Amino acid sequence: MSNSEKKETFSFQTEVGQLLDIVAGSLYSNREIFLRELVSNASDACDKLRYEALTMPSLVEGNQQFEIAIAVDKKAKTLSISDNGIGLNHQDLLDTLGTIAKSGTGAFLENIKKDEKGDLGLIGQFGVGFYSAFMVAEKVDVLTRKAGEKEAWLWSSDGKGQFTIEQADRDERGTTVTLHLKKDAKEFLEDARINHIVKTYSDHISFPVMFDGKALNEASAIWTRSAKDVSEEQHTEFYRHTAGAYDQPWLTMHNRVEGVVSYTNLLYIPSTPPFDLYEPERKSHVKLYVNRVFITEETKGLLPAYLRFLRGVVDSEDLSLNVSREMLQTDPKLAKIKSGLTKKVLTELKKKATKKPEDFAVFWQNFGAVLKEGLVEDAALRDRVLEICRFNSTNGSELTSLSEYVERMKEGQDAIYYIAGEDAAKIAKSPHLEGFRAKGVEVLLLADSVDEFWLQHIPQFEEKSFKSVTRGAADLDAIKSDKKDGDKDDAKTPTLETLITAIKLELGETVKDVRPSKRLTDSPVCLIADDGDMDVNMERLLQRHGQLQGGMPRVLELNPKHGIVRKLAERADGDAVGTDDLLKDAAHLLFDQARILDGEAPSDPAEFGRRLNAVLESAL
Ligand code: ADP
């Protein structure tokens, strides 16, 4: 054939090559999922063309019935999956199948390498499902012709580093993927096996999947069925297909809304966090359909970014089919749907939070930090978001709501106390909490970076202001303790005046002030931000993001009840001339200790070492 002269050979992009090595060489036991991936691609291809045909009906002229067909050739030992969807041209083939690694390729490889037995079934989740064909095939051919174009192409590869593309013959638009099955994969030629796999994984596909002349699936969009007619298994499979996920939905919301704008939503909340949850684009992944025609997956304006963990489908017959995706995103009707959906989701979450707190804790662990972005961004619904928010606190291991916190507040307590930091376990051990613990005053433990930001938007809750325990004077005296305080207070508290003067003199500008502490019971020192200064954690966050250079000097608090502080106070009283070297070293060591307790390095590690050694030596 003259065409064969034009056969071009290409190398897979390095990452794709690595992926193929792993996929082809794996002894993965659940190889059947390749069929799910290929049928899913075929269905996507039909969806895409149906959308294109809205504005260009000629693309589907003469063949408007979309269909997916599976065929086997037992002699040739091939299995093929055909569709009459959008098809691929030469450039599409290059872009999508090999020369350019998709963004999920690296993430998938990492996932697999992380765990020797990494689950290859996740392949679809990373947007590289096509390559799963090489689990069962020693060679894969893709014969394809793009709708509206005359030329057809044959892509072919044995998955070993290279692929070829050549011109080919194909009468109709669409794609046929032919798998030349490996010797150990002949089971996939058997009718019963194919029937079973398609029924298990692809029953929800809304185009008929034909095999031996009959459709294996119901071929109606699952969300158009009545909610009671959809089983949990069907939901799981549809969720996995539409989300490219592999877990179970944590929550399913299937509703029909009739009104000024009518729509159906079939939304899922995953039970494990999707891998792109914290990517800066904060993309939505709920698919938008208009009257059962797939429009777009990443609709801006359909849901707020703080609900980006949602997966599933929204279908409305009241949106216009004849405008571009971009115009659709600014349609006021879409804004109506967004508002309705957002409220619906918040209502469902509130139900879970109040009725099934343990179950809700799973959601909160996965997506709480994302939902809290709503406190910053959604002024209109801020209170409703806040109602659902749960927090760790010194009260115990269970999460608490703000109302529950307020109910537990002590007599004389007028603020909601919190400590913010990066590591929940570390902040729970912070010395700043000692005095609060001793008095039985609960402190919220805030370990998400978004916490610092919503606190700026919500200064109060039920008229109680939020107060960081690492900032300002601790006004614990006014709060009535339920424990008998005492033992520790019995010992006479020395005056620290001279010691404070000596430390101030020695530390100079490094500290803003030095003063006795009311918040410490066990540790000798801690650093706090002065009233009106930026909280320590916020400062650290801004520094890390390059939005702040240097930091503000902090206030050093001394625990008058601590043995070291007492002894130092006595020593300072006797040092009228201010020449006591040990006192000077101790001032720096205490300051550095406070830094270390905050998770920071000593200000001058070499000097820190020298001083520590000097003090130890004199003690020995
Ligand atoms: P995903 O489908 O998640 O994007 P895949 O690795 O399964 O990832 O497929 C890669 C790309 O190849 C698809 O995005 C699509 O552009 C193209 N493709 C795969 N199968 C088909 C098909 N049957 N028809 C048209 N395009 C296809």
| Total of DSSP H or I helical runs spanning 4+ residues | 21
Q: At CATH's second level, what is the architecture of the largest domain? A: 2-Layer Sandwich
The helix content, as a percent range, equals 25-40%
What is the C-level CATH assignment of the largest domain? Alpha Beta
| Bound ligands, named by name, code or SMILES | adenosine-5'-diphosphate
Can you summarize the main beta sheet? 9 strands, mixed
Distance between the termini: 93 Å
Task: Give the averaged pLDDT, no decimals.
Answer: 90
Domains counted in the coordinates: how many? 3
CATH superfamily of the largest domain: Histidine kinase-like ATPase, C-terminal domain
Q: Decide which structural class fits the backbone.
A: alpha+beta
The coarse silhouette is elongated
Report the sheet-strand fraction.
15-25%
The side-by-side strand order for the widest beta sheet comes to 1-6-5-4-7-3-2-8-9
List unreliable stretches of 5+ residues: none
CATH topology-level name of the largest domain: Heat Shock Protein 90
Tell how many strands the DSSP assignment holds. 23
Summarize the entry for a quick read:
The chain contains 21 helices and 23 strands. With 620 residues, it is α+β, with helices and mostly antiparallel strands.
Provide the descriptors you would attach to this structure in a database record:
620 residues, alpha+beta, Heat Shock Protein 90, Four Helix Bundle (Hemerythrin (Met), subunit A), nine-stranded mixed β-sheet, six-stranded mixed β-sheet, 23 strands, 20% strand, binds adenosine-5'-diphosphate
Structural notes for this entry:
It is a single chain. Helix content is 36%, strand content 20%. The mean pLDDT is 90. It starts with 7 loop residues before the first strand and ends with a helix. Helix 8 (332-355) crosses helix 9. It has 620 residues and is an alpha+beta fold. It folds into 3 domains: 7-219, 2-Layer Sandwich (Heat Shock Protein 90); 224-357, Ribosomal Protein S5, domain 2; 494-619, Four Helix Bundle (Hemerythrin (Met), subunit A). Strand 2 and strand 3 form a beta hairpin. The chain has 21 helices and 23 strands. It binds adenosine-5'-diphosphate. The site of adenosine-5'-diphosphate (ADP) has 17 residues, from helix 2.
